Every structure is written in C-alpha cells, then in structure tokens.
Amino acid sequence: MGRREDVSDPVARQAIEWMVLLKSGEATPQDAAEFEQWRRADASHDAACQRIERTLGRIGTVGTEGGSAAVRSALIAPSSRRKIIVRALSFVGLAAGAGLLRHQLPVDDLMADTRTSVGQRKTLKFADGSAVILNARSAMDLKSAGTQRSVRLFHGQMLARVASGTAVPFVVHTDMADVAANAGQFSVQHSDDAIRVLSLDARVRIRNRAGQTHQLERGQGVEVTAQRIARVDCSPLADTAWVDGVLQVSDKPLADVVVALRDYRPGIIRLDSAAANLRVSGVFPLDDTDFVLDALAQTMPVVIQKTTAYWVSIHAA
Fold it and tell me: Which residue range is the domain that position 97 belongs to?
C-alpha cells in the first residue's frame, strides 16, 4: 500500500492540481513546461508525482477536450461513484486528491440526514419553532424526537435559531464538543481539527471531550478542540453574514476570502502563497463568485487567471 498523505500536505495537493489542469483539455504547452520545471525543482515534488502516476498515469501529458469532459464528469459524478474514487485515491496514498473531489459535493459523511453542495444553503425548521440554517458544503444529522432538540454537525457551518419556551436545551453535537443553548442565536463552524462557536445573542454552553466547559455570552466566540477551549476575536454579525449570501470582511487575509469562495464555486481556486496574507476589506456577494474575483482583481495587487470556469489561479502582481 502506498504511503498515506496528509490532506494538508501542500506538495501532494499541488501535484494533484497539476494533474487536473494538464488532463483538463485546457492546458497549453507552456503549462506542461511549467509543470516539468516545478517537478524538477525539488525531490519531494517528483516523489509526490510518482505516487500519483503509479495509479493514474503520467501527469505531464496535456489532455484533449475528451479529457476535459472526463475530468468534469468525475468531479460531478453521482455520490456512489465519487465514494469509489475517493476510496481508491486514499488507498494509494492520495488523500489530497480525494479532498479535491470532496470539494464538489460533500462526501465527508454520505449517511448524513442533510447535506448541502457547493453554493447551496438550506434552512431546516423544527416543530417548536427553532430553525437551523446550513451553509454550503455542510453535513448534519437531525436528532429531534419528542422533547429532544439536537443535531449532529459532521462538517461545515450552521446557524441555530433556538426558540424559547422550553427547559430542554438545543444541542449541537460534534467530534470535539457539545454546544447547547435554551434560546437565541449561535453559530458553529466545524473544520477538520477544531470547531468555532459564536454567540449572536444566546447564552451558549460548551463542553469538550476532555470535560472542559465554557459559557459564551452575547457577541463572544471560542475555538474548541477535543482538548482545549480558547477565546477568539469575532464579529458575530459579519461572521454569520453568509446566511444572507454575503461575505463581509474587515482587514482579513486574502486566504480567508478564498476559503469562503471555495464553498461557493465549483472547481479549483489556487492561491499563491505570496498573495495569501494580503489584507481585504469589503462586502461581497457569495452567490456571484465571478463578480467577487473581478472585484479583487480590480482593487488588489493580484493577477487572477481563469483557465476554465473550473480552474482559477490567484497570484501576487
């Protein structure tokens, strides 16, 4: 069995991105030459490429239009086929490639009651008047039964609007912690290694897997892992503007903006590390990512290249 890659390994991720581009049918001979230069620049680059090529064929072959269709059909394949692809990639140590496929339609937990795909938001209502709004690329189980009010968030982001009038708390279960409130609004964002909890106007109780507890008051936020709870600076109204289809940032790194756009745009957005820490302020429509990219290109020292509708590269100017 091949060595399993860390999904955050930038070398493995770059190698997969090169493969997708060069097989897309849109790559040019110059792209192929730049790939070869990148591959020869470091032994780790070549090693990552070799692991991919043992299963998926030579990366550096510039594809045809047929190849483009094949790549796109794989990215939007039915969930059963995507699951097979993801397992195959993981088996040969290509978890980074699996991450790219997961971007198109969430496969973090295919058995979840409720899932949202790229660019989709969904509102779920409870019999007691409570509601949950699920952000794009999120997966959740509903566990409301009788007097119980709870959900399990597997991945992504949600905003809970908890109706008052009952002593039974509304609970969000996650891998790292349980989050509960009896009334009011709060949000939970679940990433791979932590959750971020923000209170808009609720008194929120948190208990992580190590047994540590914390209570949030209006306007407060924390980052939680299974072993620690740490206060974080936050702007609850700005941080939950996605509910209205808006990305609101004030002096945030460009990398944060790109992370938000990836949930709303099919395909791949590559961000040059030299541009990742550029500061951004503004209000942008999440449902029109082309507009956002054009606005960034016009107002920031960056060059944005759209090779296809599915491949965007952002470089420092």
Answer: 10-104
Tokens of 64: 């045809």
Of 213, 237, 261, the domain-final residue? 237
Show the tokens assigned to 291: 């507009």
Place of tokens 């609101």: 248
Tokens of 65: 């239009």
Nearest to 293 by CA among 272, 267, 268, 312: 312
Structure tokens at 215: 């209570």
CB 134 within 8 A of CB 151: no
Question: Looking at the structure, do residues 158 and 174 belong to the same domain, yes or no?
Answer: yes
Contact 28, 314 (CB under 8 A): no
Q: Any bridge partners for residue 188, and if so which? A: 158, 197
pLDDT 10s digits, 278-317: 999 999 999 999 999 999 999 999 999 988 777 899 999 8
pTM, two decimals, is 0.68
| CA-closest candidate to residue 102, choices 16, 29, 35 | 16
Tens-digit pLDDT profile for residues 141-186? 887 555 678 999 999 999 999 999 888 999 999 999 999 999 999 9
Do strands 170-173 and 177-181 pair parallel, antiparallel, or not at all (unpaired)?
antiparallel
As a whole number of angstroms, the distance between CA 262 and CA 91 comes to: 26
Rounded to 10°, the helix 43-56/10-22 angle is: 50
What's the number of domains the chain is made of? 3
